Amino acid sequence: MVFTLYILECSDGTLYIWHTDNLDRRLQQHGDNKAGAYTASRHPLKLLHVEEFATRIKVLTMERKLKGWSRAKKFAYMAGDWAAVKSLAKGKHKHEP
Question: Residue 94 to residues 79, 87, 91: CA-CA distances in angstroms?
């Protein structure tokens, strides 16, 4: 079985990150406002990213990571810009100039 991570951009500009084992059914649920309250009030939705994983643990691990990242880092990830992902991971600390 394949598990799919997907990222939607909502009409208010927020990003919705989730996973499923049936992407077509899940996108239909979003379209029918049956996927949950968060996206139901934020139509139209735009599918930005789809990525497949071999196990539910792997997709859930990536989903949780992404949810903790900044918007800029999420967009760098979706673009495959690993230099930017690395740079954005550093953050600003008191000891940095």
Answer: 30, 16, 10
pTM of the model: 0.90
pLDDT digits (tens, 9 = 90+) for 2-42: 999 999 999 999 999 999 999 999 999 999 999 989 999 99
Residues 6+ apart with CB under 8 A from 90: 96
Domain boundaries, the chain: 3-68
Alpha carbons within 13 A on the beta-carbon side of 76: 14
Whole-number pLDDT of residue 91: 65
CA 82 to each of CA 18, 73, 85: distance values in angstroms, whole numbers, following the listed order: 22, 10, 5
Q: HEC states along 12-72?
A: CCCEEEEEECCHHHHHHHHHCCCCCHHHHCCCCCEEEEEEEECCHHHHHHHHHHHHCCCHH
- The CATH class of the 3-68 domain is alpha beta
